[in-house]
């Protein structure tokens, strides 16, 4: 989930009240947020301590991604602020700003919307928040600008109508943001190929024969989305009128981004929460005013709210709780409530989202725990109960638990363990996005060795374990595969430490009440180990674990080549067993 960093002093000033760290943490919790971290730094210019609150929010709450949205929601939640009414208005004088979309853009980024914020008053704090919100939206909702790219411009430095079109890279020439000379688009691709911030966006258009660009009436370049804005129209603290354009490959997401920006920052306009609409003419010549800022209504039932949340509220009480969550509501009768969803709450997709807000406003801790009115009582799966019991005991034996990825590369389960992938019953991913995640793991060992490799600078010995599922092919199952719950432990030290993992094996078997047997002919009465050859382990240093006549795993010292392929330089002993047979 995204984390928003807000300066403590600016936050308290906007809230109109100072809080202790514990009190603000409690307020966040009540609203469904989490105060994740408090960062204290010294400002080099003033020498004073600057405190920043890192607040973790839900990934779908775009209206909380900046200081303005966070403060507005908290004040409404506390009943200190009335619900604002967002309006998209035509200018009182003259025509709205016009943006014309050319058909050439349809092959690369076909959609564009726009709006204007008039008579804005910027301070350094809200200016920084405005820029930071754009970056948060780019990373979150806009999927790293692949779906939407935002451009903000000083309207007083440019002149409409604006043209959105696509041109060959050599034909696009302008001074990019914070640069001093003119570049063409091809040169910009070279310039930003080493830029730590912008290089990640270059592949979005680099291989296209044409790049999108927005011009004003005088031919001044506003931006080349999704890469960079022009320096000519950049915002400053003196900017009064802000022209916002959002281009994208998804019209719905593009409108949501525009709605979010203008609704959150229209509070700084001379007429708060009033946004000047812009006219966008699409390739068919149809004109549409943006932003839409649509309000919609839902009718919910009191009985469903009470049944799903687990409370007994009247319609009026439910409406009052929803008003605290920025959802203007009123009771229609004893069983129905009318709820108005504002343009800031694009996360409300279904009535269940409204029910959730009722629970948040009431407080989850205030909901009384009751036994479900069902004919059965839930209980923990036996394999999970056994896993939890073993996890605690293995940790008490001196091993540290690790949690590794369920997906890995083909080499991790084959080549690095000195095995052939053809002999591994691995489930392969049909369209892997990266070489690191090609198959579902068939062993926990490779994940633990990779973890040790990433932490080999820590003091020795490194003793790690994991109890989790692996997946192997199984034609007898309807899905063609099955899970196995395994326990794996590794000892990494200057000496292999085989006695450590062997001792852990004995302890685990003792906990499972499986006695050791000396006479292998009596294997069905307990467990024993016997020598076996395995290419992953050192020759003559590997044993198979047999319990009740069934092979359940292996224990031994890893082969030097195995260790070397995980970039490790010290010997290592390992144990891996399947714990499902012991249920």
Task: Give the CATH level 1 class of the largest domain.
Answer: Alpha Beta
CATH topology of the largest domain: Phenylalanyl-tRNA Synthetase, Chain B, domain 3
CATH architecture of the largest domain: 3-Layer(bba) Sandwich
- How far the N terminus sits from the C terminus, by CA atoms, comes to 37 Å
Q: Radius of gyration, Cα only, in angstroms?
A: 31 Å
- What is the count of structural domains? 4
Low-confidence stretches: none
How are the SSEs placed, and which strands pair?
Blueprint: E1 3-7, H1 8-15, H2 21-30, E2 34-42, E3 49-56, H3 67-77, E4 87-89, E5 98-101, E6 111-117, H4 124-139, E7 148-154, E8 162-167, E9 173-174, E10 183-184, H5 185-191, E11 211-215, E12 221-224, E13 228-229, E14 242-248, H6 251-265, E15 274-281, E16 287-290, E17 296-301, H7 302-309, H8 315-324, E18 328-331, E19 336-341, H9 351-362, H10 382-396, E20 400-401, E21 407-408, H11 410-413, E22 439-440, H12 445-454, E23 462-473, E24 481-492, H13 498-511, E25 527-531, E26 537-547, E27 550-558, H14 560-565, E28 572-578
Parallel strand pairs: 4-15, 5-8, 5-15, 20-23
Antiparallel strand pairs: 1-3, 2-3, 6-14, 6-15, 7-14, 8-11, 9-10, 11-12, 12-13, 15-16, 17-19, 18-19, 21-22, 23-24, 24-28, 25-26, 26-27, 27-28
Helix pairs in contact: 1-3, 7-9, 8-9
